[in-house]
Amino acid sequence: MSLTIRLRALAADPDFRAGARDMASPSLGLAAWGLVTGMTMIKSGLSIPLAFAMSLLVFAGSAQLTALPLIASGAPLWVLLATAFCVNLRFVIFSAQWRHYFGHLPRWRRLMTTYFAADLNFVYFVKRYPDPVPARSQQRYFWGGVAVNWPTWQLTALVGILLADRIPTHWGIGFAGVLALLGLSYSLLTERMLWWVAVTAAAVSIATYSLPLKLNILCAIVAAGAVGWWLDSRKARNG
C-alpha cells in the first residue's frame, strides 16, 4: 500500500478525525501562543534561521519562553539547561501516564511520539481514554491531534518570527493563549481532590514567584504532586 493511500485512509479514520476535531477547539489560543513565541525569539536577539530551527527542534513553548531571556543575557549553558529541565519536568508525569498506553510500541515509535507530545495532546487524550488500557484507536486519536497541534504551532511561530518587528508587543496576544489553557485546565477539575491540587500549585507558584530561574514552577509542581499523593493515599486508606 502506497504512502498516499495510507495517509488518505488515516485521514478518513473516525478516531483520527476525533483527535483533530478536539485539538481544533483550543487552536486559536495555541496560535496566539505560537505567534508570541516566534516574536519573542527575534526580539531576544536570535537570527531568523536560528529562531526557526529552535521552533522545530525544541517544540516546547514554555521552555522556549523561559530560555530566551537567559540566552539574551548570556547566562551559562548549565543554567539554561537546568532551567529548561525544571520547566519541562511535567513531561515526566505525562510520559509516566502515557507509558500505560504506548509502552508496548517499538522504541523508535515511542521516541517519535515523545517529540510530538504536548500539554494539549495529553489533556485531550486522557479525557478521551481515562482507563490506562492500550487500544489501537488511541494511536490514531493521538496523531489526529498532532496533525492540528504541530502545524498550528510551527506556522504561527514562523509568522511571529517573520513579523516580529511589525507586531507591537503591547497588543498582549499571549494572553489569549493563557486564557485558552486556563479554560482547558478548568474543564479537567472534575474532582474535589484535583481542585486542592490546582489551588496548591497556584498558591505555591505565586508565593515563590520571586525565585530565580523560574524555580517557582518547580516548587509548584513538587508541592502539588505531594498534596495529590497525600490525598490519593488518604482516599485509598479510607476506601
Descriptive report:
With 239 residues, this protein is mostly helical. It has two domains: 10-188, no CATH class; 191-239, no CATH class. 78% of the residues lie in helices and 0% in strands. The protein contains 13 helices and no strands. 27% of the residues are buried.
Give the secondary structure arrangement, pairings included.
Elements: H1 3-12, H2 14-24, H3 27-43, H4 48-58, H5 61-72, H6 77-87, H7 90-102, H8 107-116, H9 119-128, H10 136-162, H11 174-188, H12 192-207, H13 215-238
Helix pairs in contact: 2-10, 3-5, 3-10, 3-11, 4-10, 5-6, 12-13
- Rg over alpha carbons: 19 Å
Poorly predicted ranges: none
Number of domains: 2
Please report the number of helical segments.
13
Beta-strand share of residues: under 5%
Task: Please write the string of helix (H) and strand (E) elements.
Answer: HHHHHHHHHHHHH
Form type: globular
Number of strands: 0
End-to-end distance, in Å? Answer: 52 Å
Largest β-sheet summary: none
Structural class: mainly alpha
The helix content is over 70%
Mean of all residue-level pLDDT scores:
84
What are the defining features of this structure?
single chain; 239 residues; mainly alpha
Concise summary:
The chain is mainly α. The protein has 13 helices and no strands.
